[in-house]
Amino acid sequence: MIGGALQVNDSITLDPDDIEESFIRAPGAGGQNVNKTASAVQLRFKARQCRALRNDVFLRLKDLAGRRMTRDGDIVITANTFRTQERNRRDARDRLVALIQQAAVPPRTRVATKVSKGAKQRRMENKRRAGARKQTRGRVNPND
């Protein structure tokens, strides 16, 4: 985090205006304190409106986010693992950064390769051997 901005990598820095955080009550066990404190964080990142994301990164992010992305192009991350707001807030931001870092890496292109001549010869030789082995098998003569 640099001056309010969230640093994802060398080329992507998220504007704080693209991130909204709201604090909600955390579900689950936690005793009496859980009923009166809003320690869970719901982070909303406006991915479609973010100028820092290139279109190809946004499309990969959309696939990675899955159900966490809304129709409007917002990514919603809920963090309620920890008991304090600050740690949940840090967890939500870390998860967002990790998701964007994963989307920022372009997939490796597959390089088509040919089967080597030796591999083809070995395969054909194995087929010949298997065929010859099966040729030796014959019908059983009931008279013998």
Which keywords apply here?
144 residues, alpha+beta, Double Stranded RNA Binding Domain, three-stranded antiparallel sheet, two-stranded antiparallel ribbon, 3 helices, 5 strands
Describe what you observe in this structure.
The protein has helices at residues 55-65, 85-104, 117-136, and strands at residues 6-7, 13-14, 19-24, 40-46, 74-79. The protein is of the alpha+beta class and 144 residues long. The radius of gyration is 29 Å and the shape is elongated. The longest helix is centred in the middle third of the chain and has 20 residues, at 85-104. The strands form 2 sheets. Strands 3-4-5 form a 3-stranded antiparallel β-sheet, with helices on one face. The protein has a two-stranded antiparallel sheet with strand order 1-2. The relative contact order is 0.14.
Strand order of the largest sheet: 3-4-5
Known CATH architecture of the domain at 6-104? 2-Layer Sandwich
What value does the Rg take, in angstroms?
Answer: 29 Å
The count of helical stretches stands at 3
The total beta strand count reads 5
Map the helices and strands:
Blueprint: E1 6-7, E2 13-14, E3 19-24, E4 40-46, H1 55-65, E5 74-79, H2 85-104, H3 117-136
Antiparallel strand pairs: 1-2, 3-4, 4-5
Helix pairs in contact: 1-2
Brief account:
With 144 residues, the protein is of the alpha+beta class.
